[in-house]
Every structure is written in C-alpha cells, then in structure tokens.
Amino acid sequence: MTADQTPVDHARFDELAVGWALRALEPEDESVFVGHLAGCARCAATVAETEEVMAVLATDLPQPEPSEGLRLRIRDAVAGTEQQPEPAPEVTAVPSPLPARVPGPRRTAEPTSGWRRLVPVGLVAAAVAAIVGLGVWNVVLSSQQEKLQATVAEQSAVMDGLLSPGRATIAPLTAPDGKPVATVVARADEVDLIMQGLAANDPRSNTYVLWSMDDGNAEALATFDVTSPRVGLKTVGSGSTGFDQHGIYGISLEPGRKAPSLPTEVVATGQVTS
Amino acid sequence: MNRGRHVLRTMRVTMGAVSTPARRPEDAERDADLLRRIRSGDQTAVDGLYERFRRPAFALARRILADDVLAEDVLQEVFLSVWRDPSAYERGRGSVASWLLAMVHHKAVDAVRREESQRRRRALAEEERVLDEPIAARDVDDDVWARVVSERVRTALGGLSAPQREALTLAYYGGYTQREVAALTGTPLGTVKTRMLSGMRRLKQELGGAVAEVAGGALGPSVAPEAGR
User: Fold this and answer.
1) Is A235 at the interface with chain B, CB within 8 A?
2) What residues of chain B lie within 8 A of the CB of A67, using their CB?
3) Is B197 within 8 Å of B87 (Cβ atoms)?
4) What are phi and psi of A248, to 5 degrees?
5) Domain A1-82 -> CATH class
6) What's the distance, Cα to Cα, between the start and end of chain B in Å?
7) Options 2.40.128, 2.30.30, 1.20.1420, 2.60.40; CATH of A169-271
8) How far apart are CA B85 and CA A131, in angstroms?
9) Do the Cβ atoms of A55 and B16 come within 8 Å?
10) Is the pTM above the cut of 0.80?
C-alpha cells in the first residue's frame, strides 16, 4: 500500500490481489494491478497469503502418482536445458521509444499448438518492433522486475499485455493502397492492435471493427475507436478465446456503434506472418 | 472433453489416499535448501523437489485439467521452469511450496483455457457448479466428493457462505476468470471480486494453522472478516 492510500482506498486492490493469485483477473484488471503491485507491500503479502491458502487446498486433494515416465522426462529436459544466469543486482532501463518491460514469472510460456507458427514473447517484441519500426526493445529478465515495472507501469499498461510471456500471432495490416496502418498481435484470449496511421473515427457516430477473414468468411472480433492518427497501442479484444486462431484479419469502419454481420467499408487487411 | 464428467469418472477409478500434511518448519527449510542447490546448478536437487511435490502438483493439475497427459505436461513445464530460473522465487514472499503449487495452478489454468473454447466451457459450467455445491445438498455423488477433498478442506469450505464457496471453487478448481464466474453465477462482477476476497479471508481463518503465516496482507488477523455475501 502506498503512503497516500488509506485502507478504504485500498479495498479494491485487496480484491484484485486475491484475483491475481487465483489467476482469475480480466486483462484490464491485471494491467492495473501489475502496475500497483510493484510498489505495494500489502498487496505482495496478500498475494502470498492467498497462495498459501491455495497450497493447502492443493495438498488436501487425493494424490495419485504421476507416471514414472514423467520423472525421466523431467530429468532429461533438465539435463538438456541451461539455467538462466543469476540476475544482476541492479538493472537500468535503456531509453527506447517504447518502455522496456520485464515479463513476470506469473504469466507462463505456452507450448506451440497446431500448425500455426507462433512466436514467444521476446520475439513478439522484436517482430512488432521490426514491423512497426519503433526502434529497439529491451526485455530484461531480472529479479529487479518490480522496480523496473514501477518506473514504467503507468506508460506500459498495454505493453504489459502485449509482452506478457506466451505465444502470439502477428499480422501487419495494410490499407488498399498498400500503406501499413496497423498490426494485430493476437493471443488465445486477447488481441492487441498497434495503430500506425488509422484515421481517428467519431465515437458518436461510427466505430472501427476488427474482423477475422479466413476463407472469405468475416467474423467480427472486436469494436474499437481511434482517437488519434499517431502510433498507439490498444487492447481491442479480451474475455474470449481463440483470437489467435485466424490467418487473415481485417479492419472496417462502420456506421453506428455495433459490428454488423458483414463489413461494409474495409480499410485494412493483412495475414499472419509469424 | 467433458471436464465435469471426466473428473468424476477419473476419480472413481484412481482414488488414492487423501493426505493432510502438516506444515512443518523442517519441510520449509528443506525446500529452501533444495532451491539453493538448484540455484547452484545441482540437477539432482530438481529430483528432490519433484519427489517432494510431484503428488500434490499432479493432483492439482489433474483436478483442473481432468486429463492426466495434460497434467503431466504442466508438471514438466513447471519443474523445468524452476530449474531454468530458480531466482524467480523470492524468499519472504511465501513458502517454496506455495510458490511452486501456485505456478502449477497458473499453468494448468492457462492450459485449460487453451484447450477449451468459451462456448464449451460455459456448457460445462453446470457440472462444475455441481461439484462446488455444499455437501448437504448432494446425494448421488456424496461418496465421490468425500474422497475428493479431505476433511479439513471440506470443513473449511463448509465455513464459507454458498456464494463465497461457489466463486472460489469455480476460480481455483475450475480455472474460470472473475468475469466468467460472474456470468456463470448471474452475479455482478464487482460482487464476485468481493466474494473472492471475503471468502479467501474466511477460508484462511477456517484452515487455521494449516496455512503458513504471511504478515501484512489483507487476509491477516488484523483485518476484520466480512460477512458472507
């Protein structure tokens, strides 16, 4: 809890701390909480308390034996895996056009699934940077994670989601004239959009819609607004799954505030490249 | 994969002894020593950690995933992750046991979310809720339930209000997000958040000495427990 927060003010974060430990937060709450957790000893203790309760729940389940083969597989995997070097005592964030972000241990790497080629988090950053031309990224693994996060948390709420460990598909979208205007970064349960030239829309009268356009079939994934033509990052879809299961994405500008059944004015399309 | 039915089916044929290990200081010290050895590059210490936690870790992953193969994949991922980066554990933030089992929980939840479409998960919700009902309201599956959760946890869960129990068990054993729990139970999201906090406070109280103490958190004794909502 920070010095300027009373216990009453902090009640919301107490709730988020329990949800975080249970891995039950929605992406928007998670972004808020990650930024807060870095500087809050009370929340760190609440997370630890919750995990202790969870551990008792786990150890009181009936406990069958895993197969003997698992022990051998783990042994083999360990023998073939190098350890990460111990973190340096201090970490300095290297200035870059976008904030450095350290992936926390709680967001976990996910195995590659199916035919789609997916890229791990570090490569997501690199691929996005390469596509968007935003410069060099620095993703540092360090025990100083929280300190570093604290310095960039406010700016990096969206980046937290974008760079959380795991797999993502990346699809650069171009306007009909070939001009790149956006990049889709899709995970199983979240889709982020890097806007790099989409015109601002009028939220009172129209909305942008992100579509999957596989095999000629359009399916609306999310609606979103663009408030500035400048480069920006936005989480446009969450709370569902399967966002990363598409090969072609498109963006349309639609009258009204809801997605129609089919796009009327497609302003950008692109396919997964990674 | 029908998770609810699969859970029941699997448990009927593989039921083992229910363990209720007491928290002992020497366990915590031994765990910390194993982690120190891993940090120093001792591969055999991973074997030691696996030996100590394989069963609760497998039980938890299996409970969430209802699939032995996926559960073993989660365990492999967790123990390899501990080997690769043992410094991810921060002493003072809880025990090695809770850290490792939380990692198992999180990876199992991630896996179950990958495996199931939203539509299917909603269809399964009713069966999850059946598993979460209080013992008094159950009949046919009483025998299964009695073997699923030990007396201690059952008693503790029984001390929660029904809405608290429902929210926590859907999140912990089912891997549902707060918004999903809200949708499944027809409850406002804010109420679900409050129930999870108040339920966790109550659960910690009910479990008593079985839970390692961590000072300064919102579940601690200095915080007045909320009435069940």
Assistant:
1) no
2) 68, 72
3) no
4) -130, 135
5) mainly alpha
6) 33
7) 2.60.40
8) 30
9) no
10) no
